[in-house]
Specification:
The protein is mainly alpha-helical. 75% of the residues lie in helices and 0% in strands. The longest helix is centred in the middle third of the chain and has 97 residues. It is rod-shaped and about 160 Å long.
Length: 582
Amino acid sequence: MKPQAHSRTQSITNGLRQLIVTLLVLLLCSHEAAQGKAYTPSPGEDYQINLFQRWHKRPSDEIFRQADIYNRTEGKGDSAFVLFNIIANRYDAVKQSDHDRQLSVKCMAIVGNYLCFDYYNYQEASRYLSRAVQLSEMHHYDSVADLANLSLAGLYSSLADMTGQAMFADTAVAKLRKAFNIAYRIQDWQGVVYAAYDMITTFKFHGAERLQTLRGEIDSLNHVPDSTPYLAYTRHFYDAVTHMNEGNYEQALADVQQMSNDLNGDNVALDMNYYSQKAEVLLKMGRYSEALASETLFEQFILKRDDKYLLAEVYEFKSRLYQAMGDTQRSNDYLLQCMKLKEEQLNTYQLSSIASLPFIEKIDQDKARMTELERQRRLQRTATIVISVFAAILLLLLAALLRLYRRLRHEHELLYQKMQTMLKSDEIIYLHDTDDDPSPLVQQPTDHPKYQNNIIDESRKDEIEIKIKQAMQDPSLFCALDFSVKELAKHVDESERDVSQVINDRYHCNFNNFIASYRIREACRRIDEGGQYEQLSVEGIANSVGIKSRSNFSVIFRRLTGLAPSEYMRIARKRRFEALNN
């Protein structure tokens, strides 16, 4: 039997307890990490911020569909902007599919459009659109690059209209050319036509003398399928502007009439352009009343749209018209109205830009918050994975320890059973002076130096041994707290030296260990018996057999039985309980 068995069991038991507590803590941490803490908007935050919170965790495709619905719904432009901005800001997310990344770049271009034409925040619009162009070209997202270049061209065209500076117009045309070439390469014929139309319009107002530089792009339109919407209209528009610049007004008017034939009433912008172009040609031809009538139709479209910028163009045209007719007063009146409208529109742009700043700032704050939330989610995912791995390892260790624990319990049962067998056979295990693994006594002659001057023949030793054995049959004798070698010698009527020498020679131990062996045997008997000893603790059992120190009792008990007193008591009580139930 192994006296170290209990220490191993105790270590495993403590280890199991610590492991279970650690595992519970880790599982709780894993749960908290997986849950995270979502941001909750305060009651004072507005609808758009709440909209952001409702949508920012959803898939990009789902957000885009809802944003597109808002975009086509009157009065929902701000909501569409918020949702498009969520997708645009996802580009820098660590894990994104190529489809989602392309959608993010597309939404950058859309957000740039909103910033330019709805919020008049040209600086932010330029930042979004320029990045959309850069990223779409870097990833070869041609369809997105087409859209981004068209949008950026629209921004520079607006700047050219407001400032009159040719450099903005040139930049706009350069972006439109790039969009034209991309659309042509991917056979986006509608995009080709839009880019060509915008280039013609830009040169018409900012450098009509350079319109011939578009001849290559216009010739390329011959390869575009005739079924493409507004293809014929764009060709005739180019011809009309070109012939008017050349002074061939009759042909220009014929081209304008061809533009009319190409209209089908489903595009108000082209209808407006037709009436404006027709009025310009008629003015050049000196047909003032017809020019005024055509411009008036153009004006009616503008009034319905409440577009003050285009209305200023109408007043500027009428100023030129009445100047040509010789009516200086009316010409000056319209010129004054034109200048007032342009100043008012410029102030509106500035005020709108200023008014949109808090909203844009909130969007930027949400972008920063979303970035932080994404960082936290990554940390939470990492923490969850790490904790899960540790939890799995701990579970494996727990399983291994439980298996080892069961095996040791089985060993303890075997040790207990062996002790029961020895108790029934009256076999004694003696605690040797130098042997940490006590075993049943084997008679071996010994000549201890201490007893070299005290010679006892073997027959005399046999006689004394018999007396000692008979004396040790009485538990009340050796379980007395003050029992000593003197008391034993007195009881067997022999000298202390002779008793001590016989114990040493025949049992290979000193008196204290000899008595301890009997006391432990008696302790085992009392634990097994239960009865009056049932409620005694380990310390009570120790005192009942004459051992004052619980620690000494536990050490001796383990050395002799291989079990701790508490473990021996547990098995004994279990056996008694099973016996009662059976």
